[in-house]
């Protein structure tokens, strides 16, 4: 197999390891903090695997640019671009929920709708730019929930 296809397979397989560990932790009833730490590492691992897979897939279709510098640059562009769209949407949602008065009387439905629409907006924005929507949603959740 070519190196690019091996890297694509490695990116896919690397995302499954923490899922197995989490299921074993749940069966054993381990400490909640340990479970949360491994879960957080698992989510970031999945985000990196998605970015690496997308980079290798774009490299596979464009075989003329097999320079290692171009591969690293595309990976960083994909990951940090997705992260910045998620952080931007998360900041906007956090500011909206903090400084608006959505929690009064009849606006609970609007608040619930916005709570769902901001991650969806983040996903669609990232996919529109050709980035990873899943990574964008991850960082929207991290920033928007603080």
Automatic annotation (TrEMBL):
Parts of the chain that traverse the membrane: 75-97, 117-143
GO MF annotation list: potassium:proton antiporter activity; sodium:proton antiporter activity
A GO term from the CC aspect: endosome
Keywords: Ion transport, Membrane, Potassium, Potassium transport, Sodium, Sodium transport, Transmembrane, Transmembrane helix, Transport
Principal location: membrane
Any GO BP: regulation of intracellular pH
Signal peptide: none
Recorded catalytic activity of this chain's protein: Na(+)(in) + H(+)(out) = Na(+)(out) + H(+)(in); K(+)(in) + H(+)(out) = K(+)(out) + H(+)(in)
Bilayer topology annotation: Multi-pass membrane protein
Location within or outside the cell: Membrane
Protein name: Cation/H+ exchanger transmembrane domain-containing protein
Organism: Triticum urartu
């Amino acid at each position: 197999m070519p190196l690019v296809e091996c890297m694509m397979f490695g990116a896919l397989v690397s995302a499954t390891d923490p899922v197995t560990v989490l299921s074993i932790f749940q069966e054993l009833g381990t400490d909640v903090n340990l479970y949360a730490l491994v879960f957080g590492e698992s989510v970031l691992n999945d985000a990196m695997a998605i970015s690496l897979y997308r980079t290798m897939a774009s490299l596979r279709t464009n075989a003329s640019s097999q320079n290692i510098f171009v591969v690293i640059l595309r990976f960083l562009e994909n990951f940090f671009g997705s992260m910045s769209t998620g952080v931007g949407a998360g900041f906007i949602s956090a500011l909206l929920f903090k400084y608006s008065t959505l929690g009064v009387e009849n606006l609970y439905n609007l608040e619930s709708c916005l709570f769902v629409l901001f991650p969806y907006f983040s996903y669609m924005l990232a996919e529109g730019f050709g980035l990873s929507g899943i990574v964008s949603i991850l960082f929207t959740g991290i920033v928007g929930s603080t």
